[in-house]
Specification:
heterodimer, A: mainly beta, 6-stranded mixed β-sheet, 5-stranded antiparallel β-sheet, 11 strands, about 0% helix, about 60% strand, B: mainly beta, 7-stranded mixed β-sheet, 4-stranded antiparallel β-sheet
């Protein structure tokens, strides 16, 4: 079993604050993905990072893949209520996608 | 474009009953997956398939069976339902071009009493 631990598990912040979510594993992955899930829906892909040390930016979201391809982080700048949701990292190896434990983010207006 | 369609959305079962969760995708994806999501536990892979006629176990296959007779359909069968199978089940598909992206259905919430 490929275990991915996310921290924190829960996060409640005020609108405009910055935050970072971490995804850590002892396993090496060929790529790592971040998904966002809203209540009653399936997860939706935000980004895929492939190369160790890679940094990708999507508007206010910055994703980084660790040099050893075992961990990743998601940083949100100036959080907005629309960012509220469950954030899941997923390590990809072979044909399988292994999901992290999830971080539930609430952004308070 | 429907994407991944799961039925039913909600179901209550009694202990020992059996049922099938249906999953269909219209994107001609070869890869299909079944996950279960429990509170605070993320998504756990039950079974997956890399094409019609080919299935393989994931992390938590016990108590479940699957079949893949067509590219479009990937049903998940629960035999002798147990309270531990109370969960939200997600079906997903991927074309696996490059790293691949998982496209999820809306989920099926199952309660076993």
């Amino acid at each position: 079993t490929q275990l991915l631990e996310q921290s924190p598990q829960f996060l409640s912040i005020q609108e405009g604050e910055n935050l970072t979510v971490y995804c850590n594993s002892s396993s090496v992955f060929s790529s790592l993905q971040w998904y966002r899930q809203e209540p009653g829906e399936g997860p939706v892909l935000l980004v895929t990072v492939v190369t160790g040390g890679e940094v990708k930016k999507l508007k206010r979201l910055t994703f980084q893949f660790g040099d050893a391809r075992k961990d990743s982080s998601l940083h949100i700048t100036a959080a907005q209520p629309g960012d509220t949701g469950l954030y899941l990292c997923a390590g990809v190896t072979g044909n399988q996608f292994y999901f992290g434990t999830g971080t539930s983010l609430t952004v308070i207006p | 474009n429907a994407g991944v369609t799961q039925t039913p959305k909600f179901r209550i079962l009694k202990i020992g009953q059996s049922m099938t969760l249906q999953c269909a995708q219209d994107m001609n994806h070869n890869y299909m997956y079944w996950y279960r999501q429990d509170p605070g536990m993320g998504l756990k892979l039950i079974y997956y398939s890399v094409g019609a006629g080919i299935t393989d176990k994931g992390e938590v296959p016990n108590g479940y069976n699957v079949s893949r007779s067509t590219t479009e359909d990937f049903p998940l069968r629960l035999e002798l339902a147990a309270p531990s199978q109370t969960s939200v089940y997600f079906c997903a598909s991927s074309s696996r071009n490059g790293p691949g992206e998982l496209f999820f259905g809306e989920g099926s919430r199952l309660t076993v009493l």
